[in-house]
Design goal:
This protein is mostly beta strands. The protein is built from 8 helices and 39 strands.
C-alpha cells in the first residue's frame, strides 16, 4: 500500500510560514534583513524569520556564513541553545548530535532527528542517517525546530527537525574558503554561481583532511554538488540538485577512565607488547602518546590484545549519491509543490569486533497544498519514502572482513498524511493545530539463520499551539504536542559480538515498540534594541517505551530495548546575543545555556538520571569590535558531573574550555580569522559510551582535543 503511492507524492517547504507570521521587518543577530521577493524554493532571510516567528515553540536559525571557521557541523551550530554536539574524535566523523534527548545513546548517532535538505528528508526511510555526510559550508542557513513542536512534513522524532538551505539564485556570488589548523586539519570550499534569464546554476566542491589529535583518528571528506534552477514566471519555479559525498574516518575508540585522564592521545593497543605502535606515529612527535608510566594490570593488558585498534582498524567509509527535484506553483493565496528524491549509499562500518557492509537504496516524495483565506491558514500534505537495505556482518579479522555471520534483507516504508489549520487574529494572537496520521513498516530477514521479523505501526499525532506577538517585537508561545519515534534497523537488528577467542557473533532481530511521548512547552523570544536579543524555552516531555541503546563490555552498542517504565525529559534552553556600543566600536556577544534533566520515573532505574547528555552546557563568546576587526575570548563549560551509565555509578567530570578568536571582515569581500581553542590544554572527556551499569576498568571515554590553533580566509567575488 505504501510503495504504490510513493511515485505521486510531493514536497512541503517551510510550512510554518503559512500558519502565522509577523508583518514587521525581522532583525536577526543585530542585522537588518532586506526584503526579497518571496519564493518557497529560494527563501530570503526575512521570509525565514517570519516563518520562525509563527512557530509555537523553540527554534534556531544558524547562519553558517556568519561564523569564522566552518570545518565541521559543530562550528556551524555553536551558540545555539538546545542543540548539543559531543565530539567523537574531532574530525569529520560522527559527532553525537541530540536535541532534548534524541538518540542520546547512539554511538555512532543514527536516529532521533529528522534531517532535511531544502525541505526534503535526508534520513533513510527507517529514520537512520549518517551525520558525517553533512557539510555545513554548502548551506546559507540551518533551521531547527526543537522537539515535539516541529511541524515538518516527515516522520516524527523526539528531537524535531533540522533543515539545511542550499544557496542558489539568492546568492549569485562565487566564494572560496580555505582553513588550516593543528593536528593536520586542512579544509577548502569553492562555489561558483551564474544566472541567465530564467535559469540559474550553482556548482560547489569541498574537501577536508584531518590527521587527528589521537592515534588512529585521521579523516577525510570530499563533496561535489550541482543545483539547476528554472523560473518560468513568478508563478512557476523548479529546481534540480545532484550531490556526491565521499567520507572516510578512522575511529580511535574509547579508553578506560584512568587512561583517558592520564594518556588522552593513546588508543587501545599502544601498550600491547605483541603489537608496537606503527612507525608512522613514532615519526611524528606531535602524535606520540603521552605515556603515564603507570602499571598495566591483567584486565587492561587483555584489552590491549583483544581490542588492539591497530590490529582491528575500526573505521567508516561511505559514498552517497543524491538526486532531488522540487517544483512549485504559487498564487497569491495558494501554493502547490511537488518534490521527489533518490538516494544511493554504500556504507562500511568497522568496529573493533565486526564489519557491517550496507547498501542502501532510498526514494521518497512529498506533495503539499497550502493557502489562506481571511484569518485562516491551511495546509494539506502527503509524505512517503521507501528504503531497501542489504546489510552483511563479518567478523573483524585483523582489520579485514573475516567469517560472515549475518546477511540481512531490510525494507522500510512510511506513508503519512498531514493536516494543519491555523487562525490569526488582528491583535497578534495566532492559534495553530496539526494532525498527522502515519503508517510505518519495518521488515527484516536474516538469511544466515532464517530469522524473520515484520513490524507495522500506525499512529495519529495531534499538536496544538499558540503564539502572541506582543509590543516591542516580543513574542510568547506555548504548545501541547504528541510525539513518537520508531526504531531504525540499527536498533532492530542487534549486532551481538564478543572479543573472547572462540566465542560466536550473531545478529538478533528485536521486536521493538514505538517510543511515545507528550510534551508541554512554553517560552518566548524578542529583542530590546540591538543590545539584547533573547529566546527562552521551558519544556517537559513524558515518555513511555523509550528506546535505550546500551554498549557491552567491549564498548560497542549491542542492544536496544524499550524501557519497561516511564521516563521524563525536561529542561530549559536560553539564548542571548547582541551588540553593546556603536556599530564600529562595541562588544559583540553570544551566550547559549542548555539545561537537561532526564530521569527514570519508575522501573529498574527509578529516580536515576538518563546517561548521555550533560546536565548543563554553556557556550559563550564576547568579542571587541573595532571597525572591521573582532577579537575576544570564547568559553565552553560543562559544570557538574554527568553519569555515563543509567545506574549512575560512573561519571563524566566537569570541564571548562577557554579560547580566543580574531576575525577581520573587509568590505571588499575578504575575511580572515585566527582561532585558538582549549588554551589551558585541559584533558577532558568529549563523549562516552553509555551502558546500563558501568565499570571503570572498561573502555568508556572519548578524550577531547588538546590545545589547538586554526586559521583561514574566505573571499566572495
Amino acid at each position: 500500500m505504501v510503495s504504490a503511492g510513493l511515485r505521486l507524492l510531493g514536497l512541503a517547504l517551510l510550512p510554518a510560514a503559512l500558519l502565522a507570521g509577523s508583518p514587521e521587518e525581522a532583525e536577526l543577530e543585530s542585522m537588518t534583513v532586506v526584503a526579497r521577493p518571496f519564493s518557497a524554493l529560494d527563501p530570503g532571510l526575512r521570509q525565514v524569520a517570519q516563518a520562525l516567528a509563527g512557530v509555537p515553540g523553540g527554534t534556531n536559525l544558524a547562519l553558517p556564513g556568519q561564523g569564522a571557521r566552518l570545518s565541521s557541523l559543530q562550528d556551524a551550530l555553536e551558540y545555539q541553545p538546545g542543540v548539543l554536539l559531543q565530539a567523537f574524535s574531532g574530525g569529520n566523523d560522527q559527532p553525537r548530535l541530540n536535541i532534548r534527548g534524541s538518540g542520546i545513546q547512539g554511538n555512532p548517532v543514527s536516529r532521533g532527528l529528522l534531517l532535511r535538505r531544502d525541505g526534503l528528508p535526508l534520513n533513510e526511510a527507517d529514520g537512520s542517517f549518517i551525520i558525517g555526510l553533512l557539510d555545513p559550508r554548502d548551506s546559507w542557513a540551518i533551521i531547527t525546530h526543537r522537539g515535539a513542536n516541529s511541524r515538518a512534513l516527515g516522520p516524527a522524532s523526539l528531537g524535531g527537525d533540522m533543515n539545511f538551505l542550499t544557496p542558489s539564485r539568492r546568492d549569485g556570488r562565487a566564494q572560496i574558503r580555505l582553513e588550516k589548523g593543528h593536528y593536520g586539519r586542512l579544509g577548502g570550499h569553492l562555489a561558483l554561481a551564474a544566472q541567465a534569464g530564467q535559469w540559474d546554476l550553482r556548482l560547489a566542491g569541498s574537501g577536508d583532511d584531518y590527521a587527528g589529535y589521537r592515534q588512529h583518528s585521521e579523516s577525510r571528506r570530499r563533496g561535489l554538488s550541482a543545483q539547476l534552477g528554472w523560473r518560468a514566471s513568478t508563478v512557476l519555479e523548479s529546481r534540480l540538485s545532484v550531490r556526491h559525498t565521499d567520507l572516510f574516518f578512522a575511529m580511535p575508540f574509547a579508553l578506560t577512565q584512568r587512561r583517558a585522564e592520564q594518556s588522552p592521545r593513546e588508543v587501545i593497543g599502544d601498550r600491547d607488547p605483541l603489537w608496537p605502535a606503527p612507525s608512522a606515529a613514532l615519526a611524528d612527535p606531535e602524535r606520540l602518546p603521552s605515556a603515564d608510566g603507570g602499571v598495566v594490570g591483567p584486565q587492561e593488558l587483555a584489552q590491549e590484545t583483544l581490542l588492539n585498534v591497530y590490529r582491528r582498524d575500526p573505521r567508516r567509509q561511505t559514498r552517497q549519491w543524491r538526486v532531488a527535484s522540487r517544483t512549485q506553483w504559487q498564487q497569491p493565496d495558494q501554493r502547490w509543490s511537488l518534490g521527489v528524491y533518490l538516494q544511493d549509499t554504500d556504507d562500511l562500518l568497522v568496529d573493533p569486533l565486526s564489519h557491517a557492509l550496507s547498501g542502501l537504496r532510498s526514494q521518497g516524495a512529498q506533495w503539499l497544498w497550502s493557502g489562506r483565506g481571511g484569518a485562516w491558514q491551511y495546509q494539506v500534505g502527503v509524505d512517503g519514502a521507501r528504503s531497501s537495505i542489504q546489510r552483511a556482518y563479518f567478523e573483524n579479522a585483523k582489520g579485514q572482513a573475516g567469517r560472515q555471520y549475518a546477511e540481512l534483507d531490510l525494507l522500510a516504508e512510511h506513508l503519512l498524511l498531514d493536516l494543519q489549520l491555523g487562525w490569526q487574529s488582528g491583535t497578534g494572537l495566532a492559534l495553530s493545530s496539526q494532525w498527522q496520521w502515519s503508517t510505518l513498516r519495518r521488515d527484516a530477514v536474516n538469511r544466515s539463520d532464517a530469522q524473520a521479523l515484520e513490524q507495522r505501526w500506525h499512529y495519529l499525532l495531534p499538536k496544538f499551539g499558540l503564539v502572541y506577538q506582543g509590543p516591542g517585537r516580543q513574542r510568547w508561545f506555548a504548545n501541547l504536542s504528541a510525539s513518537t519515534e520508531a526504531p531504525s534497523f540499527w536498533e532492530i537488528a542487534a549486532n551481538r559480538t564478543d572479543p573472547t577467542p572462540g566465542s560466536s557473533s550473531a545478529v538478533k532481530l528485536n521486536a521493538l515498540a514505538l517510543q511515545r511521548g507528550h510534551s508541554l512547552e512554553a517560552g518566548g523570544a524578542g529583542q530590546w534594541s540591538a543590545a539584547l536579543h533573547w529566546q527562552l524555552s521551558v519544556y517537559r516531555t513524558e515518555l513511555r517505551d523509550e528506546l535505550l541503546s546500551t554498549a557491552g563490555s567491549s564498548g560497542i552498542v549491542d542492544d536496544t530495548v524499550n524501557y519497561a517504565g516511564h521516563t521524563r525529559h525536561q529542561g530549559v534552553e536560553l539564548g542571548l546575543n547582541g551588540v553593546w556600543g556603536k556599530e564600529q566600536r562595541g562588544l559583540d556577544y553570544r551566550l547559549a545555556w542548555t539545561f537537561s534533566d532526564f530521569r527514570f520515573r519508575d522501573g529498574e532505574h527509578a529516580g536515576k538520571r538518563l546517561a548521555g547528555v550533560p546536565r548543563h552546557q554553556l557556550q559563550a563568546r564576547c568579542l571587541l569590535r573595532l571597525g572591521d576587526w573582532l577579537f575576544g575570548p570564547t568559553a565552553r563549560w560543562s559544570p557538574g558531573r554527568n553519569p555515563v551509565d543509567h545506574s549512575n555509578t560512573l561519571f563524566q567530570e566537569s570541564y571548562a574550555l577557554w579560547g580566543l578568536e580574531l576575525d577581520y571582515r573587509a568590505i571588499a569581500g575578504w575575511r580572515v580569522f585566527l582561532r585558538a581553542e582549549n588554551l589551558a590544554d585541559r584533558v577532558y572527556a568529549a563523549s562516552y559510551v553509555v551502558r546500563s551499569e558501568a565499570d571503570p576498568a572498561l573502555p568508556t571515554y572519548f578524550p577531547g582535543n588538546g590545545r589547538s590553533l586554526s586559521s583561514g580566509f574566505s573571499y566572495q567575488f
